[in-house]
Amino acid sequence: MISVLTERCKECGMCVTVCPTKVLEIGSVRNRRGYRYAVPAHPEKCIGCRLCEYSCPDFAIFVEVGAR
Predict the structure, then answer these.
(1) Does 66 have pLDDT greater than 80?
(2) Domain assignment of residue 57, yes or no
(3) Which residues pair with 46 in a beta bridge?
(4) Which among 58, 2, 54 has a CA at the least distance from the CA of 31?
(5) Which CATH number covers residue 37?
(6) Has residue 50 been placed in a domain?
(7) Which domain range does residue 29 map to?
(8) Burial class (CB in 10 A: 0-12, 13-18, 19+), 56
(9) How far is 49 from 5, CA to CA, in rounded Å?
(10) Across the strands, what pairs with 40?
(11) Above 60 in pLDDT, residue 2?
(12) Domain count, the chain
């Protein structure tokens, strides 16, 4: 399961770039600070590698491995 803390996300796109299975994308909805945040567009493709979590400079994304 992928959780995004939407108010922390600053639309940097690092998580989208590093994901080997293209699970994430930048959504169209904006948070209170005006940034479009990452959304798990294809959560079924997640392999639990946590590259998105490790690359997020704002600690806005978390992966719960094995929670399917």
Answers:
(1) no
(2) yes
(3) none
(4) 58
(5) 3.30.70.20
(6) yes
(7) 2-63
(8) buried
(9) 19
(10) 24
(11) yes
(12) 1
For residue 68, tell me if it sits in a domain.
no
Segment 14-41 shows an average pLDDT of 97
Q: Report CA-CA distances (Å) from 30 to 33, 35, 45, 50, 54.
A: 8, 5, 24, 24, 23
**pLDDT at residue 68 above 60?**
no
Q: 15, exposed or middle or buried, with CB in 10 Å at 0-12, 13-18, 19+? A: buried
What pLDDT is recorded for position 65?
Answer: 80
19 occurs within a structural domain: yes
Q: How far apart are alpha carbons 26 and 34 in whole angstroms?
A: 13
What confidence category does residue 26 fall into, taking pLDDT thresholds of 50, 70 and 90? very high
Q: What is the mean pLDDT of residues 33-47?
A: 96
